Amino acid sequence: MLEEQIKDLLFLRLKKLGYHIIRVKLIKFSEKKTLQIMAERIKDKKMNIEDCVFLSKHISTLLEVDDPINSSYELEVSSGGIARPLTIIDDFTSFKNNKAKIVLKQKFLGKKTYKGFLGGLDKDGKILLKTEDHEIKLNFFEIEKANIDPHWSIKNNQVN
Questions:
Q1: Which residues lie closer than 8 Å to 51 by C-beta, 6 or more apart?
Q2: What is the pTM of this model?
């Protein structure tokens, strides 16, 4: 997949610059393509406009050299935002005690979507999610997608 190829191309290079890639997404609206790259500083998981400008210049240069996209596109570099995707297992530890929305690949207890507080990882490396009804233990590979719950984050931004 092209998105994975681009992520692989940029991953180590951005890491050397002190950044972590959260997500790479190629979006096509009619004839226009947009390459969205979400990133954050490794040291504090933050990203400001200066970081976006800095990374945009570096990423543009890298992609011009390797040229994985064979047509014109616009590059967007941003932070993960308030509804930040949780894309690697370490995210579930880094954002412990934050409320998240998790969508599973298969139904569990009759549902695919759960909201609850992240409890980090247990001793077996399973992700802990405390919902209103259950404490669920999930394997990372069972998750289709996961995000910080933006509605809770807005109301409780003093906790984050």
A1: 19, 39, 41, 79
A2: 0.81
**C-alpha to C-alpha distance for 102 and 143, rounded to whole angstroms:** 7
Of the candidates 79, 88, 153, 72, the residue with the CA atom closest to the CA atom of residue 127: 88
- The enclosing domain of 127 has a CATH number of 2.30.30.100
Using an 8 Å Cβ cutoff, are 21 and 61 in contact?
A: no
Burial classification of residue 46, based on how many CB atoms lie within 10 Å of its CB (0-12 exposed, 13-18 middle, 19 or more buried): exposed
CA distance 31 to 46: 33
Going from the C-alpha of 40 to that of each of 43, 127, 146, the distances in angstroms are: 9, 22, 17
On average, the pLDDT of the chain sits at: 90
86 part of a folded domain: no
Tens of pLDDT, residues 117-156: 999 999 999 999 999 988 999 999 999 999 999 876 444 4
| Structure tokens, 18 | 């002190």
Read off the CATH number of the domain in which 11 is found. Answer: 3.30.300.70
The residue type of 149 is: D
Decide: 41 and 47 in contact? Cβ < 8 Å.
yes
Residues whose CB falls within 8 Å of the CB of residue 16, separated by 6 or more in sequence, listed in order: none
